[in-house]
Amino acid sequence: MSTAVTNSAQISEKPARRHPVGLVFCCTILGAAAQILMKTGVNHMPQPGLLGIVTNLPLIGGYCLYGISTLLLVVALKEGELSLLYPVIALTYVWVTVLSFLIFHDDINPWKLAGIVLIVSGVGVLGKGGKR
Fold first, then answer.
1. What's the whole-model pTM score?
2. Mean pLDDT on 3-13
3. Euclidean distance between CA atoms 55 and 65, whole angstroms
4. Which residue from 126, 78, 97, 117 is spatially nearest to 39, judged by alpha carbons?
5. How big is the CA angle at 16 (ends 8 and 123), to the nearest 5 degrees?
6. 97 near 108, Cβ under 8 Å?
7. Higher pLDDT, 47 or 20
8. C-alpha span between 18 and 3 (Å, rounded)
9. Buried b vs exposed e over 87-96: b needs ≥16 C-beta within 10 Å?
10. How far from the centroid of its chain's Cα atoms is residue 24's Cα?
11. What secondary structure letter does DSSP report for 126?
12. pLDDT of residue 46
């Protein structure tokens, strides 16, 4: 019976480590989508001022996604290792660059590509250093 309890404890530890990383990964996607919505909203601002902000659905949607992303991050940080999770947030820069290229037709030059490679490599290296 003690073997079953030990195996059960080992099985439950693996998802506990992946769960916060998955939440933070979702935060990066939500954060990138929020920034794209905010840019879209600002580009189509019907009128300047508070009324223009309050009535701008893409802008409000972007702020809502940021709020949801923040709540998910809080849950992930409660269960996860900060030094592992926080670098994953840097992936938001990658998603924003890719989405900006696809949606707004922003240029991707060799410097941006090098930055993306460095960010992804850095997150990968830091992820290998987490507790096992």
1. 0.79
2. 50
3. 17
4. 97
5. 140
6. yes
7. 20
8. 24
9. bbbebbbbbb
10. 6
11. H
12. 81
Task: Tell the burial category of 41 from Cβ atoms under 10 Å away from its Cβ (0-12, 13-18, 19+).
Answer: buried
CB 23 within 8 A of CB 73: yes
Q: Residue 115: is it exposed, middle or buried by C-beta count within 10 angstroms (0-12/13-18/19+)?
A: middle
CB 28 within 8 A of CB 123: no
At 48, the amino acid letter reads P
Please, which pLDDT band fits residue 60 given cuts at 50, 70 and 90?
A: very high
More confident residue, 129 or 2: 129
| CA-to-CA separations, 93 to 3, 47, 78, 116, in angstroms, rounded | 45, 29, 24, 8
Per the listing, tokens 């992936």 go with 91
Q: Are 131 and 81 in contact (CB under 8 A)?
A: yes
Tokens 């972007």, residue located: 62
Return the residue matching tokens 């030990």. 6
* Residue 1 identity: M
Under the banding of pLDDT at 50, 70 and 90, the label for residue 83 is: confident
